[in-house]
Specification:
Layout lengths: L2 H8 L11 H12 L1 H21 L8 H8 L8 H24 L7 E15 H7 L7 H9 L4 E5 L4 E5 L6 H4 L6 E11 L2 E10 L2
Parallel strand pairs: 3-5
Antiparallel strand pairs: 1-2, 1-4, 2-3, 4-5
């Protein structure tokens, strides 16, 4: 297993609770051999714990799942297990979205300004990416709609690191919606809030 393959596996690693899971053993062994991968894993684990702690603070409205299903009907067989799985996925997605929004709406004194960076990678609809690991061309239409509707937007760099994308004074969703699932280059200020990586966008390039 190489570093790139290990990262793909470790994107789903949740920390010590997964240490005994055989699905992660080879990737964790690679991280112990590769200092750069080990540092990346520490950052990923930190982001995961931040998101999890924020989700615990969020209580979605009781009728949210019903409203989402009414607005975006999904056809499926009348299978009770499938219905329960779908409802759970919707609630998790809504919680993650709310948690992400809270992260970048905190008071400015929580924001740590960083250096200017340039990141090339895929534009992500963070709600579906975090909830379902959804990305790529097959998810482009959904991602475009979600980003345009104001849900959190991010970029996954070529090294596998994911950033939340924000504007200086406003959201950047309108500028990024048409680039959903496409490769762009973002230039901006790297920032962090509560341990969550962000880029304050200054320039968007198609390649």
């Amino acid at each position: 297993m190489n570093t790139s393959e290990a990262k793909e596996k470790l994107l789903f690693y949740r920390g010590r609770i997964d240490d005994a899971d055989p699905r992660f053993q080879e990737a964790l062994a690679q991280a112990r051999r590769d200092p750069e991968l080990a540092e990346w894993l520490r950052e990923q684990a930190s982001c995961y714990h931040v998101i999890r702690s924020k989700l615990r603070e969020v209580e979605p409205p009781g009728d949210l799942a019903e409203k989402i299903m009414q607005n975006r009907p999904i056809l499926f067989r009348r299978d009770s297990k499938q219905i329960l799985k779908l409802a759970a996925a919707i609630i998790i997605s809504a919680s993650i979205t709310a948690g992400s929004m809270k992260l970048w709406q905190r008071d400015t004194h929580r924001l740590i300004q960083g250096r200017e960076i340039v990141v090339k990678g895929e534009v992500l609809d963070l709600t579906c990416y975090v909830a379902y690991n959804a990305s790529g061309p097959e998810h482009a239409s959904c991602a475009r709609d979600c980003i345009r509707s104001g849900l959190p937007v991010g970029i996954k760099g070529e090294n596998g690191k994911v950033y939340l994308l924000t504007g200086k004074d406003a959201h950047v969703n309108a500028e990024l919606a048409d680039y959903a699932a496409k490769i762009v280059t973002i230039r901006g200020k790297e920032t962090a809030r509560a341990g969550f990586a962000q880029i304050q966008v200054e320039e968007i390039r198609k390649f």
